[in-house]
Specification:
alpha+beta; Beta Polymerase, domain 2; seven-stranded mixed β-sheet; 11 strands; elongated; binds cytidine-5'-triphosphate
Amino acid sequence: MAGNLSDSLKKNISSAQLDLIQRVAGEASLLGLPIYIVGGFVRDLLLGHPGLDFDLVVEGDAIKLAGSLASRYGGRVTAHTKFGTAKWNIRESEIGNRKSEIVNRVFLDLISARSETYKYPAALPTVRMGSLADDLRRRDFTINTLAVRLDGAHFGELHDELGGFDDLKGGWVRILHPRSFVDDPTRMFRAVRYEARYRFKIAKDTRTLIPEARAYISALSPQRVRHELDLILDEPNAALMLSRLDKLGLLESVHPALHFDGSMRRRFESAKNTSNPELSNDRISNIASSNIGFRDVRWLLWLMTLSGREITSLNKRLHFTAPLLKSLLASSKLLAGLPAFAHLKPSQCVERLDALPLSSIAAVSLAAPRGEAKQALETYMLKWRHVKPKTTGHDLKNLGLEPGPQYQVILRKLRNAWLDEKIKDERGEQAFLMQLLGR
Ligand code: CTP
């Protein structure tokens, strides 16, 4: 035991969370099972910003504990016997019913302490039940091996089996054994994420293992690599992380076209610093279609300078979602053809832009150099795309026009006239319409 976090736990987490932890710990005590909060939650608690999410590790049968909790409080249990893990749906239980809005979670994950071995590099691990120390040894970095015991009189005991506390104090990201990156090459990406997030340093003994382990990145599935890059793009310091990945040769190990240069970094910056609140990152995530969010806008800002061919090839390695791939290709094409927009009439700009995903237009407008083309994209985002004639198909019918494709043609001509300011008010629109109809 390396100290006691009882007070810190009580002070830093909500009373609903504490209540939940205490009930689970009480049940574990009755069954004689030592139980611990392990990993990221303890790390962040010690750094002074505890998260909401925690993993509970039981020295013994976690599925049995979940079953006991469900018989006492209700709620469904989903068990994975192969891994000795259980998910207890607390929202369906008596605790969740009362406090769901404060507990702020639906499931509680209970894990039996286990050891892991890797049959071959980058494989998914083979699992055996074990002690807390075994469970900690299978983890990525020392800073993630701190555990707080919760059952009975042990409540709050900090267990630091592998030097995590000193590394946390010293600001070091350090792996636990020399094969760690080979066993799981995603850890190289995780190391960079923690380093920049906490302004830590990757310890020298850990960093020197990266060049040799880079070769194993090719064995990772597209989903696993993309997940790591997604997590990085979600972080406020994403640009710092990506440039570190680039310097460590980790991006080109994913794909030769993947890199992070000064122009990319500046695009991230300009997106952050845009003075127009309508065009800020968050706003774009809201206005762009619902299946494209902040993370995807970051993907666009990053990769829009790649050619369509490079994006297609990268997609084979990373398996982008279909909407993201479409937006990436559109951003690349839009950026390449951007200078032309400076010389087009508004209606011509709109005709081209209406065919593109809004997220692509938003991202390129953030990234474009100051000038008429950028102005055109911004005006499209804020104004032009909303311009519609007052006249509707209904009105055309009332004017005795036979319904058909000519409706679209007339309505488009009216919209274009508004955009190009040939029409300035409703009377002008009426006059223009009559002219179009030859009346
Ligand atoms: N872990 C690991 N190797 C990985 C992924 C995860 O050893 N490739 C371990 C780490 O000990 C980590 C725990 O599993 O603490 C939970 O993983 P995750 O939820 O991804 O990390 P957090 O510690 O919660 O960190 P973050 O704040 O980034 O989510």
